[in-house]
Amino acid sequence: MNPVMKQLIADRALLPQGWCNNVLLEWDEAGILTNVSPDAAEFALAPRVAAAVLPGITNLHSHAFQRAMAGLTEYRSQAQAGFSDSFWSWRTLMYKFAGKLSPADLKAIALQLYIEMLQAGYTSVCEFHYLHHDIGGKPYADPAENLVCLIDAAQEAGIGLTLLPVLYQYSGFGAQAPHAGQARFINSPEWIMAALQGLQAAHPQHAGLRYGVAPHSLRAVSPQSLQAMLDQLRQWDAQAPVHIHIAEQTKEVDDCVAALGARPVAWLLDHVEVDRHWCLVHATHMNADETVRLARSGAVAGICPTTEANLGDGFFNGVDYAAAQGVWGIGSDSHVTTSAAEELRLLEYSQRLLHRQRNVLTGVAASDGAASVGAYLYRQALHGGAAASGRAVAGLQVGQRADLLVLDPHHADQAGKQGDQQLDSFVFCQHGASPVRDVMVGGHWVIRDHRHGLQESSARAYGDTLKGLLD
């Protein structure tokens, strides 16, 4: 890259200290910021962005293949009297869909999804991947074949990736035998570690790629296998991120109490060293003690509001968790939407519905000093997502990656607005196309004027893939 192209000046940019004018950004060959200087208008040779610039944020929870299911499960799956559709009935449909996918299908779906994420403002994604084996559970010749498909899709799209192969052993608490629909998921701690070591050899980690692990849930692993995997992981990489589904549904909580004698979050905190390297995905059903303890642990709560709403999971206890200064981020999970703004908006709206008040979350986070709800939500999602990713993507500051969004000053929702008004409008207005005009990841423009260079070819491949799956 021409050295002059490794810098730009933003008219306005959101830095850790707040909104600043004439911000010079400079980065190195790896896409890491080496200089962030406000009030730098004298650097006339640097390309100028005559618009507001935001740091890109992380989508901390993704099951890429489920993008192709969006809109296909919105019907009553059973008609008998008294039947209640829920996560558990949705899961049965998901298993049937997952059973059809080839590696080529997964690659086409993931590429389309990652392009959509970039266009919506995500610059990083944490991929919680459990589709490990061939149809029927037969191992691939290369056990990591599907994992490599995701790496390739992320690289082609230009999005930062934290790849989390999932440990999945059982169908329920008490080491219940897996059923046929889970055959493609089943593995062991040894399989996980061999996969990570193979990936590191063939696709070494770098500024845009990070590896971690994901015990699927307490119901899908045993206490012994969970600890065995964590012991092996920490010997391999003491800082690797660990993600887990937890307390998503009330049935899971009840089953955990029956099997392990404690609620899921409480059991995990009591038996495992949970710290800032952990992300507890959903954590929808915590009691007051669990809420405070999770906040104090430093772990990230991975909230996925649109999926949790779509599946009827319930509402995260955002007010008490924010009051306890808990760290959180957002994910699109099953990808009924890829809009970062919609996840943030629905998180706040869920709290308004629960408490029958407006502007709820920022009101309990006094230490943040923010009056703007949009600014509070965006900043929290930025920092929580970065922590969950295990990557240097915590904002526009030296040592972090040059990941940024440019808001379209001509978009109707942004016109005439400044500073936090722009963040409030980004989160709480939705009229027409996304206001995200341009996106840079690691110092490279991947979206220009709302367009990705591969969007047409990707859309065609995705359409052909979906048609084949639905025929």
Notes on the structure:
The protein has 471 residues and is an alpha/beta fold. Helices cover 36% and strands 19% of the residues. It has 14 helices and 16 strands. It has helices at 87-98, 103-120, 145-157, 189-202, 223-236, 250-260, 264-271, 288-297, 305-310, 318-323, 340-355, 373-389, 420-428, 455-470, and strands at residues 7-15, 18-27, 33-37, 48-55, 57-62, 122-129, 160-167, 209-211, 214-215, 242-246, 278-282, 300-303, 327-330, 404-407, 436-441, 444-447. Strands 3-2-1-4-14-15-16 form a seven-stranded mixed beta sheet, with helices on one face. Strands 5, 6, 7, 8 and 9 form a five-stranded parallel beta sheet that branches. A four-stranded parallel beta sheet has the order 10-11-12-13. Strand 2 (18-27) and strand 3 (33-37) form a beta hairpin. Helix 2 (103-120) runs parallel beside helix 3 (145-157), helix 2 crosses helix 14 and helix 12 packs across helix 13. The longest helix is centred in the N-terminal third of the chain and has 18 residues, at 103-120. The radius of gyration is 22 Å and the shape is globular. The relative contact order is 0.15. The model has no long low-confidence stretch (mean pLDDT 93).
Proportion of beta-strand residues: 15-25%
Using the alpha-carbon principal axes, give the shape: globular
Radius of gyration: 22 Å
> Based on helices, strands and strand pairing, what is the structural class?
alpha/beta
Question: How would you state the average pLDDT, rounded?
Answer: 93
Main β sheet profile = 7 strands, mixed
Bin the helical content.
25-40%
What separation lies between the terminal Cα atoms? 45 Å
Please report the total strand number as a whole number.
Answer: 16
Topology as H/E string?
EEEEEHHEHEHEEHEHHEHEHHEHHEHEEH
Widest β-sheet, arrangement of strands: 3-2-1-4-14-15-16
Enumerate the spans where pLDDT stays under 50 for 5 or more consecutive residues: none
**Number of distinct helices:** 14
